[in-house]
Amino acid sequence: MMFCNQCEETVKGIGCTVKGVCGNEDAIAVYQDVLVYLCQGFLYEVHSIFVSRG
């Protein structure tokens, strides 16, 4: 099952569940979600380092 809510092309703004309007397959949507999750975690850690240095 696919759920993609990554771009402005999502159907009715609620996400694509079969195949993306943009043409993405479900595997690509999963990889993009993982990439965003990893980037958020990395940036959280970087921000924590800068805050702790004061």
UniProtKB/TrEMBL annotation:
<protein>
    <submittedName>
        <fullName>Hydroxylamine reductase</fullName>
    </submittedName>
</protein>
<dbReference type="Pfam" id="PF03063">
    <property type="entry name" value="Prismane"/>
</dbReference>
<dbReference type="InterPro" id="IPR004137">
    <property type="entry name" value="HCP/CODH"/>
</dbReference>
<dbReference type="InterPro" id="IPR011254">
    <property type="entry name" value="Prismane-like_sf"/>
</dbReference>
<dbReference type="GO" id="GO:0016491">
    <property type="term" value="F:oxidoreductase activity"/>
</dbReference>
<dbReference type="InterPro" id="IPR016100">
    <property type="entry name" value="Prismane_a-bundle"/>
</dbReference>
